[in-house]
UniProtKB/TrEMBL annotation:
<keyword id="KW-0862">Zinc</keyword>
<keyword id="KW-0479">Metal-binding</keyword>
<dbReference type="InterPro" id="IPR013154">
    <property type="entry name" value="ADH-like_N"/>
</dbReference>
<dbReference type="InterPro" id="IPR011032">
    <property type="entry name" value="GroES-like_sf"/>
</dbReference>
<dbReference type="InterPro" id="IPR002328">
    <property type="entry name" value="ADH_Zn_CS"/>
</dbReference>
<dbReference type="Pfam" id="PF08240">
    <property type="entry name" value="ADH_N"/>
</dbReference>
<feature type="domain" description="Alcohol dehydrogenase-like N-terminal">
    <location>
        <begin position="34"/>
        <end position="165"/>
    </location>
</feature>
<keyword id="KW-0560">Oxidoreductase</keyword>
<dbReference type="InterPro" id="IPR013149">
    <property type="entry name" value="ADH-like_C"/>
</dbReference>
<comment type="similarity">
    <text>Belongs to the zinc-containing alcohol dehydrogenase family.</text>
</comment>
<dbReference type="GO" id="GO:0008270">
    <property type="term" value="F:zinc ion binding"/>
</dbReference>
<protein>
    <submittedName>
        <fullName>Alcohol dehydrogenase class-3-like isoform X1</fullName>
    </submittedName>
</protein>
<dbReference type="GO" id="GO:0046294">
    <property type="term" value="P:formaldehyde catabolic process"/>
</dbReference>
<dbReference type="Pfam" id="PF00107">
    <property type="entry name" value="ADH_zinc_N"/>
</dbReference>
<keyword id="KW-0520">NAD</keyword>
<dbReference type="InterPro" id="IPR036291">
    <property type="entry name" value="NAD(P)-bd_dom_sf"/>
</dbReference>
<dbReference type="GO" id="GO:0005829">
    <property type="term" value="C:cytosol"/>
</dbReference>
Amino acid sequence: MSAGQVIKCKAAVAWEPGKPLVIEDVEVAPPKVHEVRIKIVATGVCHTDWECLYGTGKGMKFRPFPLVLGHEAAGVVESVGPEVTKFSPGDKVIPLFLPQCGECERCQSPKTNLCKKNWSNTQVGVLADGTSRISCKGQQVYQFLGVSSFSQYTVVPHTSLAKIKSDAPLDKVCLLGCGVSTGYGAAIKTAKVEKDSSCAVFGLGAVGLAAVMGCQAAGAKTIIGVDINPNKFAKARVFGTTECINPRDHPNKTIQEVLAEKTCGGVDYALECVGSPVIMTAALESTTDAWGTCVIAGWSETEAMNVVVEKILMGRTLKGTYFGGWKSVQDVPKLVDDYMKNKLKLDEFITHKLKLDQVNEAFDLLKSGESIRTVISLF
């Protein structure tokens, strides 16, 4: 039994910003009080992982290095620390970068999913006691968002873990740990898209396609996908777009003008799934006055967007979403169930399957626009 012992395993370590990940032998310490050690079976590669490595100082706050990236994953409980009652070795689980303690004022409120348990610690890569459970060459290695799924084993707080069905395919449901949940929830939970409405989704990566899926599930009549990469359009139709627009095909008009013309004054809902302040402004301005709603799902930590006040005065709503508004511990298992009942697509997001030692290749595929999601097998 490995319980109580340090586990030696492989992980992709980011030694410094801007440099490719390196596969290293790491040590993963046993879980402390209220912690769970998990064997990661599959992990998605998300744009936020890339941004943390290559975009620090642009749209991302600086985080301490060395660190192990990865935050969209699924695995199996290896062992549990003291005072952990809800998990047992062998449970299938999805680690969560957004906790749900169930006890704080925010967890008690139906208005939000933003539990702040351990938040200031996990944001800088450490657990509740201020240290990480991963080390390499005698040095502490930080855990990105408290998760670090680019490691064969990791340790997470028990409030940052969702227990899922024992027959769930981990190489598919890992996508519910970030991108798919975020986009899908942005449409159905945060925007609250209504039947027969018109929607525009900006950015047709994993988050955007999941937003399209959410708009379709909500019964939207018009779903317009917007992306400068027309290679994404065929896939977008699979998820439910009724039309796709490449802004570069309209050099003399802004995309918000193009959308306003197409929809008699603007869409009912716009979902920004890129993380670009310029596109956020375009998304807001593409909605109709009186009741247009724009939801920002794209990630940026440091940049500001431009809002013309009159756009808001004339009845538009601008909202943000984090993890799609889902209360993580309770809602992720329900999303897994929806997938198992074919109410939710996951397989269609996966364009590439690679091994851990090909993780830098996965970043290249993401950045070039070739992949939607690469799923990495850790064993």
